[in-house]
Amino acid sequence: MEELELRIAIYERLGLEFGCLPSESGNDWQRAKDEVLEEQRQIEFEKLQQLKKIDYVKVDKESDEYKTVMNSKSLQMQVFHIAISSRNDLTIEDIEKLLIIGNKDILINLAKNQNLSELNINEIIEKGTYLARKNLINSHELNSEQKTLLFDKMKEHKNLYSDLIDLIKQTNI
């Protein structure tokens, strides 16, 4: 809940016209604020309980549930974001929202299942873990700049990435 929305809700709880108080502090203000925030947490908890029952790999992208999860930055939604990242019908905007989250499982699914743009591939090269990078190599046609960038990233940990380094060398950097 944003600051303005919270202030409006507190005034409503107190039964006052918005902005009529000379000071937004004191015991009554704090009590009303705590009540509004608790009510908001309860609403979010109930929404989360409803959202757990949905298969996000198959749910319609135009549904409110899908949109709620995609527009949420809550850590509680990451399980749903991971499921969504394995869909095969994501738009560029959906992919970019998921990349911003940066969860390793999301990056792995995106590298494995999505048709990524050059910028998306570069971001996964930067943020990705072993499996994300491996899926990039196996699932995407990387250009020479991306191969070089990937090679440089993996060179820092040669023993961990030795098989992927060999795979990149075979494709002629």
Secondary structure layout plus pairing:
Layout: H1 3-14, H2 27-51, H3 64-70, H4 78-85, H5 92-101, H6 104-113, H7 118-127, H8 130-139, H9 144-155, H10 158-170
Helix pairs in contact: 1-2, 4-6, 6-8, 7-9, 8-10, 9-10
Structure, explained:
By secondary structure, this protein is an all-alpha fold. The protein is 68% helix and 0% strand. The protein contains ten helices and no strands. It has helices spanning 3-14, 27-51, 64-70, 78-85, 92-101, 104-113, 118-127, 130-139, 144-155, 158-170. α1 crosses α2 (27-51) and α7 (118-127) packs parallel to α9. The longest helix is centred in the N-terminal third of the chain and has 25 residues, at 27-51. The radius of gyration is 23 Å and the shape is elongated. The N and C termini lie far apart (49 Å).
- How many helices? 10
**First CA to last CA: what distance?**
49 Å
**Unreliable segments (pLDDT under 50, ≥5 consecutive)?**
none
SSE-based structural type? mainly alpha
* Helix/strand order, N-terminal first: HHHHHHHHHH
Major β-sheet profile: none
Q: Using only CA atoms, what is the Rg?
A: 23 Å
| pLDDT averaged over residues | 88
The shape is elongated
What percent strand? under 5%
Count of distinct strands: 0
The quaternary state of the protein chains shown equals single chain
Helix content: 55-70%
